[in-house]
Structure formats: structure tokens, C-alpha cells
């Protein structure tokens, strides 16, 4: 689907020239370019923590929200609390619909995601994708912590793209940063990070679907490790065709 208005296309084109700027400059430029609601969804991974630090420290008018799936690690809740304490800000949580969770668990079992791809996608839909829709309601832009050099099919990620499915501008301010650069930034600024990162968990999602990496494994190998590499997304960052959303302005 093409961009629906010339205004959105102009905003997206203007943002493409910011590829050499700092993440703070990129977020400020986004704020300046988009008059409406901007939402940043954090899952409290190290990239998200770096962006939360910038948004809160720079007092940018960007809503910081999270999707509490109900299956997160205790240490994720810990870093969530530490972050709210450090910056004296609340992070709004969106929760799954409880009737949908009950029906899914009754049908597939509490850990049905291990037994079939359909059950895994259903769980991710109920616990993440549907709440994400509510979190982004009315937003004109969506900020994420995606990086292009994460494994899986994230190499296709751009700084700014148009999300056809959700009809908004999608921004990845750290798209061209390495993990080491993000880690250095967090150390330099004393940003709270999940203690699991130091234990080999580089990409942290729900507890039953995340394991530590073995030496030499790519960064996202610990997510849904029982599935094939091309299936390692939860549906938050894929379009209706199953591909990562990455279209640039025409
Ligand atoms: Fe369910 Fe696992 Fe997806 Fe979390 S990552 S929503 S537990 S399937």
C-alpha cells in the first residue's frame, strides 16, 4: 500500500537524511516533524534502555510504553522498576485480553508454544500483537530499538520506514549502531540494564521462549530456539505478508 498522504511522504523523506545523526538528534527531529502522538515500545532490552534514557533525559514528548505479556523474567520487572525509579517516570503497560489468554491456554495448554508453530504464533498474537495495536492507537509514529546487525532478517531495517499495516511512520534510531556501541552508551550514562545480559541472554523476551546463547551463536539464536531462523519474530515487526516492514519513501 502506498503512503496515504503527501504529508506523511514528506515527513518520511525528511527523516531519511538523518542517518548520520545521533539517536538523540534523530528522536528530536522525529518529534519536530510529527505533530501527533509518538509511541516508543520498550521491552527493557539494552537497546530499549538506551532509548528510554534519551527520551526521559531529554524530556522528549514521546510516550514510553511496554507490553507486559505475563510471561516475562523477574529480572525484566526488576529493570522496569529500576528505570521508573531512576528517571522518576512511569512506563505505561498494556496487557493481554484476559478472556483471550484463558481461551488460548484452555485450548493449547500453558506452554503450547513449544508444540506447534500455530500455537506459538497464537500466543504471540494474544500476548503481544493485539496489545500492541492498543498501545499504538492514534499514534502517528512508532519508535523501536531494532538494530540492523541483529541476526534473523533484521538486516533489512532502515532508520525510517512506513508501516503499511499500522499506517504510521516507524523509526529505529539505533538501526546502524552495534551492540557494543549500545553497551558502551549504557555504561557511560549509568543506564539500568537487565542482569541477564551478563549471563549470555543478549535478546530478552518472554522467559519460556528465551535462553542464553552458546559461544559463537548469533544474537537472536536464544529466541524461539526450537524454530527455524526465518521464523524468529513474534509478529510485532512483520507485515501481513510475514516480512519485516521496511519500505522507504518512494
Ligand atoms: Fe507466548 Fe513465547 Fe510469544 Fe511470549 S514469546 S507471547 S510466551 S509464544
Automatic annotation (TrEMBL):
Its EC number is 1.8.4.10. The keyword Iron applies. GO terms for molecular function: phosphoadenylyl-sulfate reductase (thioredoxin) activity. Residues 38-212 form the Phosphoadenosine phosphosulphate reductase domain. The keyword Iron-sulfur applies. It catalyses: [thioredoxin]-disulfide + sulfite + AMP + 2 H(+) = adenosine 5'-phosphosulfate + [thioredoxin]-dithiol. Pfam families: PAPS_reduct. The active site is at 234 (nucleophile). [4Fe-4S] cluster binds at residues 123-124, 206, 209. InterPro entries: APS_reductase, PAPS/APS_Rdtase, PAPS_reduct_dom, Rossmann-like_a/b/a_fold. Keywords: Cytoplasm, Iron, Iron-sulfur, Metal-binding, Oxidoreductase. Gene3D superfamilies: HUPs (3.40.50.620). Its cofactor is [4Fe-4S] cluster. Binds 1 [4Fe-4S] cluster per subunit. Pathway: Sulfur metabolism; hydrogen sulfide biosynthesis; sulfite from sulfate. It is found in: Cytoplasm. Catalyzes the formation of sulfite from adenosine 5'-phosphosulfate (APS) using thioredoxin as an electron donor. Belongs to the PAPS reductase family. CysH subfamily. This is Adenosine 5'-phosphosulfate reductase. The gene is cysH.
